[in-house]
Specification:
By secondary structure, the chain is mainly alpha-helical. The protein contains 26 helices and no strands.
Length: 471
C-alpha cells in the first residue's frame, strides 16, 4: 500500500489497522501507524479510535489518553467509540470511579452513549459488587436515554444481582428481558443457575437448566460444572454422572472443576472406587491435580477407613510438588486417629510442627481429641496448655474436648477449674460443654456438683439473648 503512487485513501489504512486489532495483534498496529506518519499519511478520528482501542486492550490507558489529547488538538470530535474504548480500558485496570466519571463527561459533552458503552459500565460495576449503581445506570439507559438493552447488558446485571443474593430482582429482570423479546443465552441462564445453586435452591437451578436445554441453548462447560456441583451436593450423584457423560458426548471436555465436583460427590456418597477411577482419568488426561482433588479423596478415604490408600495419596501429592494444606492434613490426622494409627498420627502432627506449618486451632482440637480417645491424656494436656504459647486461643470445642478428657481420667476438680477458666477468658460454655461435665460428674458419683452445673446451664440459657431453639 505504501509503495503505491498515489497512496490509497486513509480509509484503506484504517480498515487494515482495524483488521489487525481484531486479530488481537495490538502491538503490531503501532509500528504500522508510525510508518504511515513517516510517509506523510495523516490520521483521522477513525485512526485514533483504532490506536486508543489497542492501547486500552494492552492495559496502557495513559497512552490512550495521550492520543485523546491529540484528537482534541487536531480539532477532531471524539466519538462514542473513542469514549467507549477509554472507559473499557479504565474498567480493565479496575479504575471504576474514573470510568464512571468519563462516562458522565461523555454525556455532558453531547456524545450519545450507546448500548455498548452502557454495557461496559454496567458489567464492571456488577463485577465489583456495585450492583445498586449498576441498576441505576440500567434505569438511566432505559428511561432517560431510551436505549434498548441487549442480551449482554441483561446478562451482566442478572449476574450481578444473583451474586448479591438478590434473586427476586434477577428473576424479575429475566422476565422483563423475555417480555422485550430478547432471548436469553447460555450466560444469562448460567447466572441464574449459579444464583440458585449458591442459595441451595437446587430444584430451581435444575428447572432453569432444563428450560435452557429445551430451548436448544447448549450449556457451556461452566454451566455444566455448576449443575453437576449442585446435584453432587444434593446427593443426586447418579444424575450428576449422567450430565458428566452428556457433556462429553456433546464435545464439551470436562475440566478440573468438573472432575473435582464429581469426585467430591462420589466421596460423599461412599462411592470411593468411582472417585478413584475419575482421579486416575484426570492423571491420564494430564489435568493439573491440585490440593482440592487430593484433600477430597483423602477425606473420603479416611472416613471409609481406607487409610493406606489415603496415605499413598498424601505421599504422592508431595512427590509431584503439591503441598498439602490444612484441610488435607486435617483429614489425614482424623483418619489416622479414628482408625487406630495413633503413632503415625502423632508422627504426622510432629512433622507438621517441625516444618513450621501454620497449625490452626481446629487441628489442635482434632489432635487433642484423638489423643484423649487413645488414652494418651498427658500428651493431650501438654498440647492443650501449650496452645497459648503458639499465639492461639482455645475455642469452646477445644475446651469441651479437654474437659471431657479430664472427666474420663477422673480429674473432676481440674475439669471444674477449666470450666471457670474458659468463662474467665471470654469463652462461653455451650450445651455440649455442660452436658460433658454433668455426665462426667454423675459417672464419678458427685451428684451435688452435677446438679449445680445443670442449674448453671439453665440459668445461662434463660439469660442468653439467643433463643434456645437457635442454639
Amino acid at each position: 500500500m505504501i509503495s503505491l503512487n498515489p497512496f490509497p485513501s486513509i480509509e484503506a489504512f484504517n480498515n487494515l489497522l482495524t483488521s489487525i486489532s481484531k486479530l488481537r495483534c495490538y502491538t503490531s498496529v503501532f509500528p504500522l501507524y508510525q510508518r504511515m506518519r513517516l510517509i506523510g499519511i495523516e490520521p483521522n478520528i477513525f485512526t485514533y479510535n483504532s490506536l486508543i482501542n489497542c492501547c486500552c486492550q494492552l492495559r496502557q490507558v495513559d497512552y490512550g489518553f495521550c492520543l485523546f489529547s491529540e484528537i482534541l488538538k487536531r480539532g477532531y470530535h471524539p466519538t462514542v467509540v473513542t469514549f467507549t474504548s477509554l472507559i473499557k480500558g479504565l474498567c480493565l485496570q479496575g479504575n471504576i470511579r474514573p470510568a464512571v466519571h468519563l462516562f458522565e463527561i461523555m454525556t455532558v459533552s453531547g456524545v450519545r452513549p450507546n448500548v455498548v458503552t452502557y454495557g461496559v459500565i454496567i458489567d464492571t460495576l456488577c463485577k465489583n459488587g456495585l450492583v445498586d449503581e449498576a441498576v441505576n445506570m440500567f434505569d438511566q439507559m432505559i428511561n432517560v436515554r431510551k436505549i434498548v438493552p441487549n442480551v449482554v447488558v441483561y446478562s451482566s446485571l442478572i449476574s450481578g444481582l444473583c451474586k448479591s443474593d438478590r434473586l427476586t430482582e434477577a428473576i424479575e429482570l429475566f422476565h422483563n428481558m423475555s417480555a422485550r423479546g430478547i432471548p436469553a443465552n447460555a450466560i444469562t441462564y448460567g447466572s441464574l443457575i449459579h444464583g440458585f445453586s449458591q442459595c441451595g435452591q437446587w430444584k430451581e437451578a435444575q428447572r432453569y437448566f432444563d428450560e435452557m436445554v429445551d430451548k436448544g441453548i447448549s450449556p457451556t462447560v461452566v454451566v455444566y460444572n455448576m449443575q453437576i456441583d449442585s446435584l453432587s451436593k444434593e446427593g443426586k450423584i447418579g444424575k450428576a454422572g449422567e450430565l458428566f457423560e452428556e457433556m462429553m458426548k456433546l464435545g464439551k471436555e470436562p475440566d478440573v472443576v468438573t472432575y473435582n465436583s464429581m469426585i467430591d460427590g462420589y466421596c460423599k456418597n461412599s462411592r470411593l472406587d468411582d472417585a478413584l477411577q475419575l482421579y486416575k482419568k484426570m492423571k491420564r488426561k494430564g489435568l493439573k491435580l491440585a490440593n482440592v482433588t487430593y484433600s477430597t479423596l483423602v477425606s473420603g478415604l479416611c472416613r471409609a477407613g481406607r487409610v493406606t490408600t489415603a496415605r499413598s495419596l498424601l505421599i504422592e501429592m508431595q512427590t509431584i510438588g503439591v503441598s498439602p494444606d490444612i484441610v488435607t492434613y486435617g483429614a489425614m490426622l482424623d483418619g489416622l486417629f479414628k482408625n487406630g494409627h495413633i503413632d503415625e498420627a502423632i508422627e504426622l502432627f510432629q512433622s507438621m510442627e517441625g516444618k513450621g506449618f501454620k497449625i490452626d486451632i481446629q487441628i489442635y482440637s482434632l489432635v487433642i481429641a484423638g489423643l484423649c480417645n487413645a488414652k494418651n491424656f498427658e500428651y493431650a494436656r501438654n498440647i492443650f496448655y501449650g496452645i497459648t504459647h503458639k499465639g492461639l486461643v482455645p475455642n469452646v470445642v477445644t475446651y469441651t474436648i479437654m474437659i471431657n478428657g479430664m472427666c474420663k481420667e477422673g480429674m473432676f476438680v481440674e475439669a471444674e477449674r477449666l470450666m471457670f477458666e474458659m468463662e474467665k477468658n471470654g469463652c462461653i460454655p455451650n450445651v455440649i460443654t455442660y452436658d460433658t461435665i454433668i455426665k462426667g460428674l454423675l459417672k464419678g458419683g458427685d451428684i451435688k456438683k452435677a446438679r449445680k452445673f445443670l442449674q448453671r446451664m439453665r440459668d445461662s440459657s434463660s439469660h442468653s439473648a439467643t433463643p434456645p431453639s437457635a442454639c
